[in-house]
């Protein structure tokens, strides 16, 4: 499958893309395109983490988050469609330029999961800020739907951390 091309002026790595996304106060098209790729990559990252965990309940929680990250990519794609008339394509994992370099999944520990939960809660705040900083009500609604699910992701990760800690 052909590689999905990076948006113009996009950084080369997922880490740099996340840095730009997290620093963005407004949902510009450039940032929304990066977000489609980052959310789509999120599914693969959660799946990679899940594969390393023997605890089935924890695996299920991680995969649930992963499926929703892909749904988030599709909602952001639709938001771009609302703004431009054309949805931005959501890449399959093998087409996603931010997954071109294989990454070792992080070691899953209760501490790591609790840390990741905070990142998810921050994701809700980020989406909420973007929703406030767009004039388009349909775009704002799509961003807020994603945001509310990021809080659920954080809660699922805290639940997973407690399950792992209980052994
Ligand atoms: Fe997400
Ligand atoms: Fe999330």
| CATH architecture level-2 label | Up-down Bundle
Q: Give the fraction of residues assigned to helices.
A: 55-70%
Domain count, please report it: 1
Main sheet summary: none
CATH superfamily: Ferritin, core subunit, four-helix bundle
Assign the CATH class: Mainly Alpha
Percent of residues in β-strands: under 5%
Q: Could you give the count of β-strands?
A: 0
Work out the helix count. 5
Task: Give the CA-CA distance, first to last residue.
Answer: 41 Å
- The topology string of helices and strands comes to HHHHH
Question: Taking Cα atoms only, what radius of gyration do you get, to the nearest Å?
Answer: 16 Å
How would you summarize this macromolecular structure in one to three sentences?
Helices cover 68% and strands 0% of the residues. With 167 residues, the protein is mainly alpha-helical.
């Amino acid at each position: 499958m052909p590689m999905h091309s990076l948006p113009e002026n996009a950084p080369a790595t997922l880490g740099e893309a996340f840095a730009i996304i997290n620093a963005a106060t407004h949902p510009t098209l450039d940032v929304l395109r990066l977000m489609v790729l980052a959310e789509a990559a999120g599914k693969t990252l959660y799946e990679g983490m899940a594969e390393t965990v023997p605890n089935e309940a924890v695996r299920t929680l991680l995969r649930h988050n992963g499926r929703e990250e892909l749904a988030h990519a599709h909602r952001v794609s639709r938001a771009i469609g609302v703004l431009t008339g054309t949805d931005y394509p959501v890449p399959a994992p093998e087409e996603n330029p931010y997954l071109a370099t294989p990454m070792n999944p992080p070691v899953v520990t209760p501490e790591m999961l609790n840390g990741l939960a905070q990142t998810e809660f921050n994701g809700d705040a980020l989406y909420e800020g973007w929703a406030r900083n767009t004039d388009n009500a349909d775009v704002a609604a799509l961003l807020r739907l994603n945001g509310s699910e990021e809080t659920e992701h954080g809660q699922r990760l805290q639940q997973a951390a407690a399950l792992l800690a209980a052994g």
